[in-house]
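Build the 3D complex.
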Amino acid sequence: MNRLGFASITQLQKLLQKNEISSQELLDYFLTRLHKHDTQLQSTLEIFDAHSIKQASASTGKLHAIPGLIKDNISQKGRQLTCASKILENFTAIYDATAIERLKKQGAFLVGRANLDEFAMGSSTETSAYKKTKNPWNFSCVPGGSSGGSVAAVAAGLVPWALGSETGGSVRQPAAFCGIVGLKPTYGLISRKGLVAYASSLDQIGIATRTVRDNAIILSIIAGNDAGDSSSLPVGAQDYTNMLTKNIDGLKIGIIDNALQAEGIEDDVKKAIETAIKQLQKLKIQIKHVTIPSMDFSAAAYFIISRAEAASNLARYDGVRYGFRAKNVSNLQDMYAQTRHDGFGHEVKARIMVGNYVLSAGHAKDFYGNAQKVQQLICAEFLQQFQQVDLLLAPTTAMGAFKIGAFDANKLQMDLQDYFTCPVNLAGIPAISIPCGFTKDQLPIGMQLIGPRLSESLLYAVAHAYEQNTEWHTMHPQAFVD
Amino acid sequence: MTLIHKEELLKIAQISQLKLYDNEISALTQQIQDVLSYAASVSKVAPHALTHEHAIAINIFRNDTSAPCMANEILKQAPEHEHHYFVVPKVIESK
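Done.
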């Protein structure tokens, strides 16, 4: 039983098929494990009871009885949906997100709600109004964010998979910090219906797993067109595990040199990436060196576009129709302002205000207008590179996980965590972060493979080949190995 | 270097429908100032950028059909409601 915590989805499915374990025993095992370890890890906002978990899902299906955790900005009907914000503390989701609907239809056991940065705004899960999630490799460090709860739980073997969401790197960055696989799919591949909006032109549901195959299994269930999301692409369902062992001989990967030479990148990260490149060459992959010059301006453009959209999206939280409402107010206007003051945390308020500033008359052209132009430039540069190479490679983060509270006094440094990840969101293309080593402090390091639109199968094939030829995915944080 | 002054911050807070207390102003000003100063670098590269060539904007239509209404479930979550209405504090105060 001890090995079950770190078993892959495929291994768990085999045990179930051979009747070596029942679905009830499997669920009990993971619920016990969650209750035991999460007091320390703090990855969940709620762990559901076994009865309601089973009731909510179909009794058969491709993912029958496989437990997973859902970031608490994705709607699960009848469950609380807080976005880790006080302003939604009493809100109950009244419908399932399309991704959740598809998972339930395939029998997946959705065991709880994962902690996150408030409204997915942050890179450390520290802005949650409820708790601070720890990094499973070192409890004094952050798990990354904003999908820190989802990722930490998977890395600690408390669930085999979890859903997160990405706006600027919120699945890949924590996946790198916690040593697991994190996918940010092509914009529009997974329906956003039921994902609470932060910056709608960038938001995508992402997938956290310990292996590449597990990631492909989950994507196969939730990807595909949905009439409930007008930005959903006209792509049908497909089995992404089919191409995992595709021949990748002679494939061309471009190393983004200006990312590898960026200021502030730690030596350990650089070395790990250089070693990974050699490993890829052994797999007969051709390596080229390229530059994406506008990458250095991506974070600036991302700050503007994401905050502008956030200011608009978060205007709906006004205390009128749902969620928290401030008491003792004199009139309607006062109620709005007091509710939003008391209900939102510091980071959310700052982002809303930046958003309204960059959209305001007198500043919109310089900020929002120019950011859109930079976004077009980034798209063009990626497109140009994908004419020469099949995929691109860059570090996911400049460093290993940082200490809790490290950036309390320098919020800009925290925001710059998105430096290597946000260009991908701005371009709407897919990327996968996979573990590729450890720092000298024994903290995981991640690298990201980036592909053109809808190249998920190719990303999986290369990531899988690399994973199968390295041992990073077999290493687990000691505190969770029973 | 973009500089944001207290008066401008208060105006933005007002537009954002956010009450601010005096002890919150300095930390927020600093944080917003830092982000804006960094973000202003977009103007360095933007003039050379392409315009519209790569932008994708398409209309998505759907049939205008009726679906079950969830009004009651939505109303149940309101901080205050009466019959089929959301109740809010007075819009216009009496003298």
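Chain A touches chain B through 63 residues (CB under 8 Å).
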